[in-house]
Each structure stands twice: as C-alpha cells, then as structure tokens.
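Deliverable D5.2: sample structural annotation.
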Amino acid sequence: MTAEAEERWLAIVAHATRPFFRYARFAGRASRDEFHWFLLAALLVLAAGYALDWLILGSSAWTKPDFFRLASFALLAPPTLAVTVRRLRDIAATSPTSPRFPKG
C-alpha cells in the first residue's frame, strides 16, 4: 500500500469514528465526509447486529427485537443524532423553517 493510500484510509477511519468520541457534542459542525463515512459505518454495525442475531440467537430480522440489534441501536443512536445535528448546522439548516433545511 502506498503512503498516499494509507493516508486516505486513515482519514476515512478517522471520519467514521469521530462521532463516537463526540456523541454528546451538539455544538459545532460536521463535515460532509464525517457525516457520510459515519453513516456507512453505522449501517455496517447495524447489519452486523442483525447477522449476529440471526446466526447466534436464531431469530429472523422480522421477529421480536433481540440482544444484538438492540445493543447496536443503543450504541449508534446518540452519535447519529449528534452528527446529524452538527451536519445540519454545517449546511446552515438551523430549523425546519430554514430555507436550506432538507425537504423530505
């Protein structure tokens, strides 16, 4: 692996893990890279929770919630909320009445 590729990989890991360390910080801003890489990492953690429930506990994805799914959701809820608030602030969408607030 070249030094440039290794540096880019380390930047991706830093962006994906930063919200875990700033899970209680709603002030400030989140970059686009931080937001998107964290969401990708969060989806992978949730998928791993579903897979562990299916493999270890033998439950399907549509039955009652099991341990690994609930644990992954509890782990990801605070940093996801915090990074989303910081990202919305970064794009100047401070409230749902703001003209830059994403419309669903």
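Annotation notes: The longest helix spans residues 32-57. The CA atoms of residues 39 and 80 lie 8 Å apart.
The annotation will be released with the project's public dataset once the embargo ends.
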